[in-house]
């Protein structure tokens, strides 16, 4: 029976290759090489050329394994979570219905996708590791080849760790609470290793990355364990559970489509479904039925709270983690690591996508919104009030993170955490409102942008919301750049301006677009009547 | 005698929401059973668990005495789901060949031709089923369910989107399968199928509320409930 599966796969592969648009493939490779080349050049520009001093080399030798091991620990933690959520692989819906329900060994069907996942993660990790190794060679002792090889080995093993752990957790049916707890323990243990308290679970693989300048035989034991786990994950692939594969088969195809369409919000929504994240049936705190004076504003207020109070624990935990990540980004920016402002922007953008759920729900159900006899913009702005209030505890979590790392920055942290967080979620608001089904959208044929610029505009569409969220990081940079007197007031004022502008845009967007369309239509009518008269 | 399908203490929950159970039932070899119930009563969940696509939260379920999901159980069970699923890049004929060969059927071509003829798909055999309308997709899915040998047929709302000829063809296929000794468990509200069945099991909120012979009065009441 295995030969039947092999035959079919071979036939399908041949057909796909035959239907491939080779010019399109070449164009994609060209774009990837171009973007990749620029990224490497940019990274190179960040690395100075002077050789590291002896004390710096000693510090890297001492702390490097633990710090680099953090990526391995993170891969293990992500693997634990992914496996408990039914990952790390997905197969076609037809494979589930036809192959997995057929009387053939499931390993025949599933070993290949597991192998492919291992291969792609190992290759991606090796590529990143090799580039990083090559950059390290410019300042550290050792040949570039040795650094690239050790970096590649470190990256590949990190990728394999993720897939192998996920498969074993999936096969072992480890419940999500246990997987999350284990992930927290792994990360905490590695954190302790970075602090120098004890050895961490990722230290040995992290140490492998330094083989460009020094070798430790014990690292090979860890590498052997990871490789063995990878092999075991292929051997046990046949025991992967069908139910999660059914669920993932449906969602992953939608997810790929959303990624293709660069629809970040849909990607986030589908990832939530992939994790089986659902609103709680019973809210954390009940909102009294029929409370309030019955006005539309009160109805929106109650509706918003009802939605937020049904957030599952997992989402609240993720929001807290994103707040902490934003706080870490702020600390980095305060230490003059300016690129970290992008990290703040991304963390707060993702936090915003989670936070502005009432607005997302209305946007996702335009039939309800459009049937309400109220201006759409007014309705949408009012849906932002409760999420903005609900952001306060998360802003404080971010502030607390900053205070723990930089106690002397407590006044800035507490004073500015709320406005900076609200600026951060503005990007998510723009993303949600802009990507909503638009009753005023112009037909594609009348788009003002020529097709040649479609790629550029779609990239801009993708990055604009994150850039808006990154303004929060710029404000933090301003904390260091501005003179102390009145800095907080100025930053707060700038934040309020961004928040007000976003709110005003949401409120007036439909009106502006309507006027714009009317103006374009009037222009067309005039030009066609002129053409008719000549 | 071992039942074609035996369910003992079965329950399934999604998070904190119960979907099915606790449920105890058995479908005997060669028996023709209709599963009735309103939306959300647990019909699809029960069928998907029996097909091995969902895991039971508690309880046991076996096919001809074999553990659900085992190779033997898979060889004996054909599942026709409520949503047809196909490969994007295979024609109807290629799907039929593939499924038949996966189930070890070498002499499948005449059977495939017969099935396509019954379902009115003979002219569409070389077309991709993913490009079909809902009704044609359903017909192609029916052909896939019947191209392979089985002892237990699990069917979920099979008449959705079917025209009159398609319904008649499906009823004839049910009759043939039954005549060959297969057990049928069909979730439907289609009255002809309900009336032709030997037994009706009605579910409400995941538990059995009726299990017996479909007299006219029972059927009307159960279908309209």
Describe this structure in words.
The complex is a heterodimer of chains A (534) and B (225). Chain A is mostly helical and 534 residues long. In chain A, 76% of the residues lie in helices and 0% in strands. Chain A has 21 helices and no strands. In chain A, helix 6 (144-171) packs across helix 9 (218-235). Chain A is globular, with a radius of gyration of 26 Å. In chain A, 37% of the residues are buried. The model of chain A has no long low-confidence stretch (mean pLDDT 84). Helices cover 36% and strands 27% of the residues of chain B. In chain B, strand 4 (58-63) and strand 5 (66-67) form a beta hairpin. In chain B, the strands form two sheets. Chain B has a six-stranded mixed sheet, with helices on both faces. Chain B starts with a strand and ends with a helix. In chain B, helix 4 (109-119) packs antiparallel against helix 5. Chain B is globular. With 225 residues, chain B is an alpha/beta fold. Chains A and B meet through helix 1, helix 4 and helix 10 of A and helix 2 and helix 3 of B.
List the defining traits of the structure above.
heterodimer, A: 534 residues, mainly alpha, 21 helices, 76% helix, 0% strand, B: 225 residues, alpha/beta, six-stranded mixed β-sheet, 8 helices, 10 strands, 36% helix
Number of strands of chain B: 10
Write the element-wise H/E pattern of chain B from the N-terminal end onward.
Answer: EEEHEEHEHHHEHEHEEH
How many helices of chain A? The count is 21
Distance between the termini of chain A: 74 Å
Largest interface: A-B, 27 and 29 residues
Uncertain ranges of chain A: none
> Helix fraction of chain A?
over 70%
Strand/helix succession of chain A: HHHHHHHHHHHHHHHHHHHHH
The biggest beta sheet of chain A is recorded as:
none
What general form of chain B does the structure show? globular
User: How many beta-strand runs of chain A?
Assistant: 0
The geometry of chain A reads as globular
Write the layout of secondary structure elements.
The complex is a heterodimer of chains A (about 525) and B (about 220).
Chain A (H helix, E strand, L loop, with lengths): L1 H18 L2 H25 L7 H31 L8 H7 L6 H32 L6 H28 L4 H20 L7 H6 L9 H18 L6 H19 L3 H11 L21 H13 L4 H22 L5 H16 L1 H8 L1 H6 L4 H7 L2 H21 L4 H25 L19 H28 L5 H47 L1
Helix pairs in contact in A: 3-6, 3-7, 5-6, 5-9, 6-9, 10-11, 12-18, 13-14, 13-18, 13-20, 14-19, 14-20, 17-21, 18-19, 19-20, 19-21, 20-21
Chain B lengths: L4 E10 L2 E11 L4 E6 L5 H9 L6 E6 L2 E2 L3 H6 E4 L11 H11 L6 H11 L14 H13 L5 E5 L7 H16 L3 E5 L3 H6 L2 E6 L2 E6 L3 H9 L1
Parallel strand pairs in B: 3-8, 3-9, 6-7, 7-8
Antiparallel strand pairs in B: 1-2, 1-4, 4-5, 9-10
